[in-house]
Input
Amino acid sequence: MAENKWTGKTFSVKELDKLIKEHGLLRPIAQILACRGISSENVKEFFNATLNELSSPYELPGTERASARLWEALRKDEHILIHGDFDVDGLTSSALLSWVLIECGANVSIFIPHRLDTGYGFTSESLDNALNVYKCNLLLTVDCGITSNEAVDRANELGIDVIITDHHEQASKLPTAHTIINPKIHPELKKLHCLAGVGTAFKLAHAFIKYGVDNGLVFKKIDLREVLDLVALGTVADIVPLMGENRILTKYGLKILSSQVRPGVRALCEITGVNASLKSTDVAFKLAPYINAAGRLGDPGAAYKLLNTTSIVEAIAQVKQLQDYNNQRRSKEKEIFEEAESQIYQTIKIHESYSILIYGYNWHQGVIGNVASRIARDYNRPTIVLTIIDGQAYGSGRSSANVNLVNILSGSDDILTRYGGHPMAVGLSLNPKDINLLKKRFEDSVSGVITPEDIIPQMDYDGDIYIPELDQKFFEELERLEPFGFGNLQPIFRLTNLSVPYAKNIGQGHSRGYLKDSNNYSIQFIAFNFSEDKLPKPPWDVLAVPQLNNYNGVMTPQLSIIDIKHSSG
Output
C-alpha cells in the first residue's frame, strides 16, 4: 500500500479572521468552520438552527397531492400498504409513516421485502408477494420506487394508486405513479437533495399533518417531534450529508434518541453499551449495524418490530435476535473479505488498474456491500463485488475519488438486468456470462474520469493544531459543531514533531501512550490499527481527531490518531 498523502483543506484567511474577531471563536474552531465553507454571516445559523428553520413541506412537490390522497383513503377507510426497504433508512421510514398514519386513524399494513427473496427495491415480484398477504387500494413506497416502472405499471393495472417517496437517482423515465416525492428529480431544490429516505418520508408526514390541520381533518394532536429519533437513525445510517435540514433534523433527533423513550432503542443501547448522551458516531458504528444485520442476513421484520414495539420485554427478545444476526454478519464478512483479497492479489495488477471488480460463488448477498466498501476504502478505487447464485450475478458497488457509479453503470445498461442507487453506492445484477465484459467496461469508464493521482490514498485535514490549544474551551466549542457525519466530518488536525515518551499495545493490534511537543506540553493518544511494532520511529507527525476520553467519569483530552509519519523535523 502506498503511503497516504496528507492534504490540508483550503480556506479563506480573511474569513478565518472574521470568524475569530466577530464571533470570538478559538482559532482551531474558526478554522474548522472556514474549511467547511461556513462564513461569518451564516455561522449563527449553523450553530443555532432550530426546527422552525425547516422549510415548508409543500416546497417539496408532490407532498400536498399525496396528502390529499392519503386523507381520502382515511375518509373512505381504504387499506394503505407501505412498501418499505430492509436497511435502516427504509425501516425507519416505514416506522415513521405507519405511526403517523395510524395515529390519525388510517388502516395501514407494512411490507418489508426480504433481500434474498425479492432483492432490493419495489419490484413486480415484491408487489405480488405483498399482495399475497395484504390487499390494498393505495400503496406508499418509502426509500424505493423511483426506478420501479414495471412494478408501478403492474399496480396501475390492478387499480392500485402508488405514491412514491424516494431519494435515489432517477432512471431515464419516471414511473407513472399517482404521485412521486423525490427531491432529486427537482434540480431547483438542491437544498433538499441531501435528504435521506426517512427525511423525505418526514416531509410527507409533515405535509400530511399540515393538510389535515388546514382542512379540519385532524382530531388529535400529533407531535412530529416524537419521530425525530427515527429520522436521526435513518439519516446518519444512510450516510447522507449532515448539513442544512439534515443537520437540524439529526441534531434534534439525537436528543430524542438519547432519552431512549422507545423501548427498542433502549434495548439496543443497552446491548451495544451506548450511554445516555448519544452521538451520531454511536448511531453509525453501534446501533445501525445491528438494525442493518437483520436485513442483511435474516428477517428485516425483526428490526421493524424492534423500532415499533411498546414492550421492553419484546424489545429485549428482538435485540438478542439482531445481535445473533450481527455476529453472523461479522463472520461471513470476514470470510468473504479474505477470499476477495486473495482474488485481487491473484487476478488484478493493482498498480495498473483504476478499478476493482471481483466475484465469487454463493457469497452472501447481505454482506457484499460491506466488503465492497472496505475494498474501495483500502485500495482507494471504485469497487464492484459480485456473487453468483443460481445462475445470476448480484452485486454492490462502492465508489472512491468522487466517481459517479450511477453514470458509470449507465454505459452498461444493455448488459445489466438491474442497477440503481447513489453516485457513491449502487446495486446491480446481470448474467454471469457478461461479467468479464462489465469488468472491462468498468475499468475503461473509470480510467476515463480519474487520474493516477486520484488513486493515491489521500487524507484531508482541517489544519494544524498545538497541544496547549486542546483545552476545556476548545472541547466546549467543538461540541457545538456536532452532529458529525458525512458532509460534516469529525475534525482532523495535524500535529508535528512530537516525541513519544510512552507507548504500549492494547487490545488486538492497537496502541496507547503519550505524546509531547517541543515545549514539553503532553497529551495521551490512542491509535487504532497501529500496534506497537507498526509505529514509526519518533519523532512523529500525526493526523488525529481531538476527543475527550471518559474513564470512570473523568474526562481527559486525548488524540485519536488516524495516521502517523516519521517527522522530518
